[in-house]
UniProtKB/TrEMBL annotation:
InterPro entries: IspD, IspD/TarI, IspD/TarI_cytidylyltransf_bact, ISPD_synthase_CS, Nucleotide-diphossugar_trans. It comes from Lysinibacillus macroides. The record marks 15, 22 as: Transition state stabilizer. The keyword Transferase applies. Gene3D superfamilies: Spore Coat Polysaccharide Biosynthesis Protein SpsA, Chain A. Catalyzes the formation of 4-diphosphocytidyl-2-C-methyl-D-erythritol from CTP and 2-C-methyl-D-erythritol 4-phosphate (MEP). This is 2-C-methyl-D-erythritol 4-phosphate cytidylyltransferase.
Amino acid sequence: MQYEVVLPAAGSGKRMGAGHNKLFLKLLEKPILIHTLEVFQQDTLCTGIWLAVKPEERLYIQTMLQEYGITKVKSLPAGGVERQHSVHSCMKEMEQVDIVLVHDAARPFITHDIIANLVQSAHTYGAAIAGVRAKDTMKKVRNGVIEETVDRDSLWMIQTPQAFQYDLIVEAEDVAEKVGFLGTDEAMLVERLGHAVHIVESNYENVKITTQEDLIFGEAILRKRALDLA
Ligand code: CTP
Ligand code: MG
């Protein structure tokens, strides 16, 4: 089962505080954006990449794609104010495919096996997202005081990729746009349609590079993987 992937890369990286798009920062000499793109460049099931970018960064990114031999990018549509807008601007250009994956460009450690599980699950059920079980004790807090301890068994921390049958994600985005609904992920838009979204168990390495300390985790993950391969 083949898929195309939407990679929103048009953020500002405010929490990283680098003064520019965090995706240009390097992990072991290679930009974060390229680490992520290489996963999909090498994934045999992936037939196309849609990369949402800031218009003023498009040229710079196109040069990077050439330098690193990334050939699967079909288009670099302009991103929007919010991540959801950036995803939507890619979806507006994409033609009918079997499965669409949406994946944060800031998650460079996604693996081929998790992608394959997501694609299979989306093919079977319509919608599937990556997540990991919550590790810490979780409590609901109001005004600085514990209200209750939440049953951890039912809690999952959600990541990307999120995978959908093409018609389903198109419908979910159209409805969200029509009513002006802004979700924090694509699954929320599908949940609003009343459609079941399945979980695929991912791993704790699939972090989103968000703050400075994530750069340290990120390089540690890359070093460990290089050792595993040696
Ligand atoms: N993103 C996007 N368009 C936006 C906002 C975010 O394409 N308007 C992308 C980011 O480039 C990133 C992904 O969505 O790959 C996840 O967003 P996040 O980790 O929040 O990145 P930033 O928005 O860049 O960071 P921050 O929130 O700290 O500013
Ligand atoms: Mg953000």
